[in-house]
């Protein structure tokens, strides 16, 4: 039997202040606000087993320290009705904590249900902190810690930093000591930088870069002549989700990167661009690439939403694999350098380009979510088999389907798995069939593996 | 700032942008070649960022790769891109 209780986490004397929202906060606040009741799909979800189980008082004390460390967890966002959005960092307040008591055997199921309860409803960003806490207690000790966060509080990179800091706090570190050792950029500080003359110059340069690439890019990448008709006739069509899990790709991408003197991220994006160009017949391809915007050390430590989209336009991507990968490196530098901007202002400029029929197809998305600190062979042994043999271990599955997504022809996430790399892909069936999705994913894998083999790394 | 001081400044920024992955001594041992010490893409991004923040010069990240291969070529690129270097 499960019992239900509500407690509170009290925060006082934490950092406080107000200021304009950051570019990242504005960008994601705009998205989730427009989504309304569908906004919870952007919420971040964590259901963490505690081993060994711990007293609730200790868990809540650690979480209070975590809030003290990262302002974004106790920040509200207030629109002014116009173009302004203000961030309010509360120095004190109370966070409700949902507690479920059950037997240890029931804890995983109860934890899963509690996570859905916490993350399954939208946040009221003007009135509540973007962070929700749940505890699953068994025999008086917390067996599972359940956390839900609005995407306005953190992106995936921020979530990783938050988890790491929570573990350090659990091991006895204080927020003050951790921040002293590794200063983390707080959103109010980021907003101040963005409002400075340098920040404004970068914003303008980034939006100019975006618009120039959009004006120069291909009007349509995959031809899909029936796409507009199908999209109109079948607005509820489901977007398939394919997952390619490849040990061969994990091995080959490192080797190709080393041989070409580029990052493995450039190899994968270059391979994807080359494959898309070959498949579509469009020599130039354009991806919106999600960029962490965490290049400086303090930004790298930040628990907040800093990630934004870069526009990546690779010309003549169909020509040659090696050439595409080498140029991906330098084009990525430019694109990533221009991935911090006021999204609302950019959206207005892009809408004008689209309205005039002068915008490239920007419905292709690339998100390399991997953390450089976590490699595929950190916990499993690197395979010694030849790449040709490893290819036989590739798995392709179709885990789920999604509701239609606006302005998405194709979206690919790169993920690290134990002993493999994963490419998770979603595509609009009006643009690309399941067979086409498989051809693309296997094509990316084959391109990289073939390059590694050709360079004597078979 | 004269070009020698500028070069020293860029060397300091390059080491800092390496975030512990490379020392000044290692760079000197490699003839100040960023390529030869395996300077990462992330480090390059940080370096370009730092040069704009601290020297006030915007470098084109898409400039030909040879401009970013050594401390000397980066220094030359900064001067060509418009710094206060005297010589």
TrEMBL record, chain A:
Start and end of every Condensation domain?
Answer: 32-342
Membrane-traversing stretches: none
Q: Which SUPFAM superfamilies match?
A: CoA-dependent acyltransferases
| A GO molecular-function annotation | phosphopantetheine binding
Gene3D superfamilies registered for this protein in UniProt: Chloramphenicol acetyltransferase-like domain (3.30.559.10), Nonribosomal peptide synthetase, condensation domain (3.30.559.30)
A single GO CC term, please? cytoplasm
Domain of life, per UniProt, equals: Bacteria
Q: Which InterPro entries match?
A: CAT-like_dom_sf, Condensation_dom
Cross-referenced Pfam families: Condensation
Q: Which residues form the signal peptide?
A: none
GO biological process: any one? Answer: amino acid activation for nonribosomal peptide biosynthetic process
Which PANTHER family does this UniProt record tie to the protein?
FATTY ACID SYNTHASE, NONRIBOSOMAL PEPTIDE SYNTHETASE
Protein name, please?
Condensation domain-containing protein
UniProtKB/TrEMBL annotation, chain B:
Span of domain Carrier: 33-77
Q: Which Gene3D superfamilies match?
A: ACP-like (1.10.1200.10)
Q: Per UniProt, what is one Pfam family of this protein?
A: PP-binding
- Name the record gives this protein: Carrier domain-containing protein
Question: Looking at the record's lineage, which domain of life comes first?
Answer: Bacteria
Lineage of the species this protein comes from: Bacteria, Bacillati, Actinomycetota, Actinomycetes, Kitasatosporales
